[in-house]
Design a protein that fits this description.
The complex is a heterodimer. In chain A, 49% of the residues are buried. Chain A has a two-stranded antiparallel ribbon. A two-stranded antiparallel ribbon of chain A has the order 2-3. Chain A is built from 14 helices and four strands. Chain A is mainly α. Chain A starts with a helix and ends with a helix. Chain A has one domain: ABC transporter involved in vitamin B12 uptake, BtuC (Orthogonal Bundle). Chain B is 34% helix and 25% strand. Chain B has a six-stranded mixed sheet with strand order 6-9-10-3-11-12, sandwiched between helices. A six-stranded mixed sheet of chain B has the order 18-19-20-15-21-22, with helices on both faces. The chains are: A mainly alpha, B alpha/beta. Chains A and B meet through helix 9 and helix 10 of A and helix 2 and strand 8 of B. The complex binds adenosine-5'-triphosphate and magnesium ion. Magnesium ion binds next to helix 1 of chain B.
């Protein structure tokens, strides 16, 4: 019970938030709003799953925002300038990103450099590469884009469950399985619990670290593809600060920043809480969008204090 | 059945050498382990026991020497590799993963799985089965961290036993187990021995060595002193092998002194907290040692925590020098010049990254407030004085404390509180993990502190020891202070019967 407390609290916050929205704007009950909530936050949800693994293992990945931007720029350049088939371009960029993440993981493990430093360098590197490819915003007009964005299941009541929303839910589902039902998942928690102990117990620390950052960059690229569906363009300055939104979502989702404890489902709820605040502010109309940041900041603060309290309480309970 | 001496060597270590900056931790050490034997590895703090084990299991790279397992030259790359070769280990300092479930701790890296997915149910069932052979029935789905240190230790042993086909290494596994649990462990070790597993057993408890070990190897300052069958090695000789000098037989015993009189420095009336300890009365006079005896979980440590304000009392009143005081936190206690060395030095004591000097002056500095930095010269002087006084084995005071051997860390922790010149000092298991030589020194130190008028409250599981230095002994059972022994009653037998008697 105590173990699930952080997730339950997150879920409680979401439900209370949703009820507040509903009381003020009855249309929040419509499937259209719900569908949009999922669609608009799909890319954040996808990166956040990867970030959850990273944070669970006691690390951090600051490069994800830049990887998203790089993905967009790469796709735009590949598809529009070189005429590469969009699907092939997707595969290419996912592969590249996985390599990039594996490289960061390798550096973190082999040279025992803090993840913070390595991924900070990765962040500048990926962002820099965007500018090498192009400094302009390049629109993507490929037919495939139109086709993909048109795929959607109609929901009763006029809403649509779009392709990207489904992709995000699938990623979350895979993340849940990976985290809780595979050896890899157990190894990730082990690393976050105590790296030295994990090593002594025979957990393949190096392999796991590399895979974690590989997964994070891979999912960031996937999120980048989804992001390019929203904007239909590649732009070097896109998605700045997304890494911080992602970390916030993970922490609000009940994952301990120090690693070792948390859930993927919690992260999904954390993302939806952020989306809910955003939607509320859009509906409200008079509030500046900066209120989103302020609300998230306050929530984040509350959650971190709460986690301190909970872990102190569990130490005392022993 | 083959006679003992004809059994083949399972593990053969030759000329093993390992140096750290400033220390030769192992110097051409020779060691053999036969199949089906329990081999005690002994030596003072810092002798190189843990280092030997870590080199063997691939945590450290050796500088020179060879290791053969079943006649094959091996070099473990890391503990995982050592495991796969058949060498399973329970390490001294690092335990398991408190955030994972008990089942995951037992099966990590080898979870039963199907189609790439872990079969959690199967894993839990097998974990419960495994632990039941140790007489442990707990919910294996709960995180390991929610259990007591003793249970965690048993899980660690169960894991290593289950993993190691050939060699099982236990580095001070019994330090936090109570008598019953040690009994269980020994039963299991004997079973494993009968199955032909070679077991290396590191401990400082000589009784345990003589209870289970077939052979004993002694290290001193990184060198091999000797290797002998237990039956041919009298205790006194073993001790002198470890120390490299004769230990006076009475070194462990305190000189008889007249009963301490006078007004208590600290007194507690009706002090207690629900679910922790039932209300008790306790008074300690200057120059007096009061011992707390009882089984693990009987409320000894809880009493200490209450007295030191780590737990807040719900009933009763504390007095210092006869005046009522409020002790609501460890800070209050520390301001009243109380000192406390906790039992679990790993999580409650040392700051591994800081130097020995910084660790020693920590409490003193905290008392002065961080704005009144102790002058560096003074810090050096204090650190060096205690390093000498307690014989902490280290090249210098600037070494990070985490790199010291376990027993030397314990001494540094003691130094931290002594440096604050407390008037009332609580020692929770002060000699746990400390070798016989240092043991005697700590006991002598306790005596000297008493003569200086310090009031001491000492918790210990070792009855002989507690009887030797205590003026009075309070016996606890089931979270209750059941009896106070004084004068001639203070002896190991009486303490034991009091602990064991049912009412
Ligand atoms: N990682 C390290 N870096 C530097 N020095 C070390 C390291 N580990 C151990 N040492 C040093 O090597 C020596 C041997 O230490 P070791 O831990 O093997 O002792 P031990 O016999 O296990 O003692 P104890 O009974 O106190 O556990 C000590 O002087 C210790 O300070
Ligand atoms: Mg040791």
């Amino acid at each position: 019970m105590r173990r699930h407390l952080p997730v339950l609290i997150t879920l409680g916050v979401f439900i209370v938030g949703y009820l507040i929205c509903l009381a003020q704007f009855p249309s929040f009950a419509s499937t259209r709003v719900i569908g949009n909530l999922l669609t608009d936050n799909a890319f954040l949800g996808i990166v956040a799953v990867g970030m959850t693994f990273v944070i669970l293992s006691g690390g951090i990945d600051l490069s994800v925002g830049s990887v998203i931007a790089f993905t967009g720029v790469f796709l735009a350049v590949a598809i529009e300038r070189y005429g590469i088939n969009p699907y092939l371009a997707f595969v290419l960029v996912l592969g590249l990103a996985a390599l990039f993440g594996a490289g960061m993981g390798l550096l973190i493990h082999a040279f025992e450099i803090p993840a913070f430093i390595v991924t900070l360098a990765g962040m500048f590197l990926a962002r820099g590469l965007c500018f090498v490819l192009t400094t302009d915003s390049i629109p993507i007009n490929a037919e495939a884009y139109g086709q993909i964005t048109d795929i959607a299941f109609p929901l009763p009541g006029g809403g649509r469950l779009t392709f990207v929303a489904i992709a995000m839910l699938l990623v979350v589902a895979c993340g849940v399985v990976l985290a809780h039902f595979t050896r890899f998942g157990a190894n990730v928690y082990a690393l976050g619990g105590n790296r030295a102990s994990a090593q002594l117990m025979g957990v393949p620390v190096g392999k796991t670290t590399i895979r974690i950052y590989m997964l994070s960059s891979f999912l960031a690229a996937l999120a980048g593809i989804v992001f390019s569906f929203y904007t239909s363009a590649g732009y070097s300055l896109a998605a700045t600060g997304v890494e911080l939104d992602t970390i916030a979502a993970v922490v609000i989702g009940g994952t301990l920043l120090t690693g070792g404890s948390g859930t993927i489902i919690g992260t999904l709820v954390g993302v939806l809480i952020q989306g809910l605040i955003q939607t509320y502010i859009t509906f409200e109309g008079t509030l500046s969008s900066w209120w989103t940041k302020i609300a998230i900041g306050a929530l984040l603060f509350a959650f971190i204090v709460l986690q301190r309290g909970l872990s102190a309480a569990s130490v005392r309970a022993r | 059945m083959q006679s003992f001496n004809e059994r083949p060597d399972l593990l053969e270590i030759n000329g093993l050498t390992k140096g750290f900056p400033g220390v030769q931790a192992l110097d051409h050490v020779h060691f053999t382990l036969r199949a089906g034997e329990i081999h005690g590895l002994l030596g003072e703090n810092g002798a190189g026991k843990s280092t030997l084990i870590k080199v063997l299991t691939g945590v450290f790279k050796r500088d020179a020497g060879s290791i053969r397992l079943d006649g094959q030259e091996i070099e473990a790359r890391d503990p995982a590799h050592a495991l796969s070769l058949g060498i399973g280990t329970v390490y001294q300092e690092v335990n398991l993963l408190p955030n994972l479930s008990v089942a995951e701790n037992l099966f990590i890296g080898r979870q039963p799985h199907r189609f790439g997915l872990v079969r959690t149910g199967e894993m839990r069932r097998r974990s419960a089965e495994l632990l039941s052979t140790y007489g442990l029935s707990i919910n294996v789905a709960d995180p390991l961290g929610s259990f007591s240190v003793a249970v965690q230790q048993i899980v660690a042993i169960a894991r290593a036993v289950d993993l190691s086909a050939k060699v099982l290494i236990l580095d001070e596994p019994t330090a936090s187990l109570d008598a019953n649990e040690v009994e269980t462990l020994f039963r299991i070790l004997n079973e494993l021995k009968a199955r032909g597993i070679g077991i290396v057993f590191v401990t400082h408890f000589l009784d345990q060595v003589y209870a289970v070990c077939d052979r004993i190897t002694v290290l001193r300052n990184g060198r091999l002193v000797g290797s002998r069958p237990t039956a041919e090695l009298p205790r006194i000789e073993l001790v002198s092998m470890m120390l490299g000098r004769e230990l006076a037989a009475e070194a462990l015993h305190r000189n008889q002194r007249p009963a301490v009189t006078g007004d208590p420095v600290v007194a507690f009336k009706d002090y207690g907290k629900r679910r922790l300890v039932e209300p008790f009365d306790l008074a300690v006079r200057p120059g007096e040692v009061v011992g707390l005896a009882g089984l693990l979980g009987s409320g000894r440590t809880e009493t200490a925590k209450l007295v030191f304000g780590i737990e807040r009392a719900e009933t009763g009143q504390a007095y210092v020098d006869g005046k009522p005081v409020r002790i609501a936190s460890a800070r209050d206690a520390s301001r009243l010049r109380f000192g406390f060395t906790p039992e679990d030095r790993k999580t409650e004591g040392i700051v591994a990254e800081l130097s020995i000097r910084e660790n020693i002056i920590l409490a003193l500095q905290a008392q002065r407030g961080w704005l009144h930095q102790l002058p560096r010269r003074k810090q050096d002087e204090i650190a060096n004085r205690f390093i000498k006084l307690l014989d902490i084995r280290t090249p210098d005071a600037e070494k990070p404390i985490g790199l010291l051997s376990g027993g030397n860390q314990q001494k540094a922790l003691l130094a931290r509180w002594l440096a604050t010149e407390p008037r009332f000092l609580i020692l929770d298991e002060p000699t746990r993990g400390i070798d016989v030589g240092a043991h005697a020194e700590i006991i002598r130190l306790i005596e000297r502190l008493c003569e200086d008028g310090l009031a001491l409250l000492v918790i210990s599981s070792e009855l002989e020891e507690i009887a030797s230095y205590s003026d009075r002994v309070i016996v606890l059972r089931d979270r209750k202070h059941v009896r106070e022994l004084s004068g001639a009653e203070v002896n190991a037998d009486t303490i034991m019967t009091t602990i064991a008697s049912h009412q």
